[in-house]
Amino acid sequence: MKKILFALCAAVLAAACTPKEAVPGVYTLSNANGMQVSITPFGGRITAIQVPDRSGVLQDVVLGFDKVEDYYPENNLSDFGAAIGRYANRINQGKITLDGVTYQLPQNNFGHCLHGGPTGWQYQLYQVVEADDTHIKLLRESPDGDNNFPGNVKAYVTYTLTDDNAVDIAYEATTDAPTVINMTNHSYFNLSGDPTRSIVGDILYVNAANFTPVDSTYMTTGEIVPVAGTPFDFTVPKPIGQDIAADCQQLKNGNGYDHNWCLDTAGDISVVACELYCPESGIDLKVYTDEPGVQVYSGNFLDGSVVGKKGIAYQQRTGICLETQHYPDTPNKPQWPSAVLRPGETYHSHCIFAFSVK
């Protein structure tokens, strides 16, 4: 059945090809500066971001694969570049309760539901609604009971490449029954353009005075604690690896950084949420969002077993994810900003990845 499903996906992708597609199933956006962003409807994934370095040479700054079929779960289980849904990050024991009704979701990560379950939207085919040289709008129609989530959901993700070298990502969704929604993009960034190079020397800033600790199963404890005096303090920019090996229980629990920071931006998308800079290439990435949190994941579980673009095996900490989001397990922590979506409402989320050179 799985082979039939993915053969069908491949056929649909091939049938949808337009001249904008560099390879079957991949749409490439471009701007006046020569920057390019490639996207596949399979999982709504960013497959490449080509951005100029300080010498003007284009560098592909995200991890991934050379072929669309390499993203299929029968070939590789990965979240590279994906538009995650219905719920990014973890839900405790895979259980949510809405209006007194409890739903048991898949438990695909230490007993928890991670990224919408084992067949989350990163492994589903989005429909192309609009596409031109600078933007693409994708639709995911998720039926009631998809990975046991309630409600028929229509979710859109729109990628726009601007002439100031920013990738603008806008999400929206509606439902016909109460449900939870928390979408994000799961790109792994390596701003050097060389995925054989670790990201630990890159400089990170996070506009957050607090973060949410996790237990040994990567589940948030419900606490919000200050970053001051801990390895989690990136309020002053510092190398990612400066404190990553510190004797800290939270780093041991996360196997490095795999935590949610509580942003101090108050939902103002004009304020920098976090910034990543690669001294080697000169490429700088500023992240803007209207979300309350960002999950910083330092590629701790990359171990060389996944072979990506150009036959390169991705080793530990050769990519970093900056996932704008609601906090993990929000449905079970009513003291945190709600991720509940009801009929008649529209979910909105906005993230901008703005590139420049220093």
Write the layout of secondary structure elements.
Layout lengths: L1 H14 L5 E3 L2 E5 L5 E5 L4 E8 L5 E3 L22 E2 L5 E2 L3 E4 L2 E4 L8 E2 L12 E5 L3 E8 L10 E9 L4 E10 L3 E2 L3 E2 L2 E2 L13 E4 L3 E3 L12 E2 L11 E2 L9 H6 L3 E5 L11 E4 L5 E7 L3 E5 L22 E6 L14 E2 L5 E11 L1
Antiparallel strand pairs: 1-2, 2-3, 3-4, 4-5, 6-16, 7-10, 8-9, 11-12, 12-13, 13-14, 14-28, 15-27, 17-26, 18-21, 18-23, 19-20, 19-22, 22-25, 23-24, 24-28, 25-26
Descriptive notes:
The structure is a single chain. The protein has helices at 2-15, 249-254; strands spanning 21-23, 26-30, 36-40, 45-52, 58-60, 83-84, 90-91, 95-98, 101-104, 113-114, 127-131, 135-142, 153-161, 166-175, 179-180, 184-185, 188-189, 203-206, 210-212, 225-226, 238-239, 258-262, 274-277, 283-289, 293-297, 320-325, 340-341, 347-357. By secondary structure, it is mainly beta. The protein folds into 2 domains: 2-187 and 341-353, Beta-galactosidase, Chain A, domain 5 (Distorted Sandwich), CATH 2.70.98.10; 195-339, Beta-galactosidase, Chain A, domain 5 (Distorted Sandwich). The strands form 7 sheets. The chain has a 9-stranded antiparallel beta sheet, with no helix packed on it. Strand 2 and strand 3 (36-40) form a beta hairpin. The longest helix is centred in the N-terminal third of the chain and has 14 residues, at 2-15. It is globular. The N and C termini lie far apart (50 Å).
Strand fraction equals 35-45%
The main sheet orders its strands as 11-12-13-14-28-24-23-18-21
Helix content: under 10%
Termini distance?
A: 50 Å
Oligomer: single chain
Give the total of beta strands.
28
Q: What is the CATH-assigned architecture of the largest domain? A: Distorted Sandwich
Structural class: mainly beta
Shape: globular
CATH topology name of the largest domain: Beta-galactosidase, Chain A, domain 5
CATH class category of the largest domain: Mainly Beta
Provide the domain count: 2
Q: What is the tally of helical segments?
A: 2
- The residue ranges in which pLDDT falls below 50 over 5 or more consecutive positions are 1-19
Tell me about the biggest sheet? 9 strands, antiparallel
Series of H and E elements: HEEEEEEEEEEEEEEEEEEEEEHEEEEEEE
Roughly what is the average pLDDT, rounded to an integer?
Answer: 94
Overall radius of gyration: 19 Å
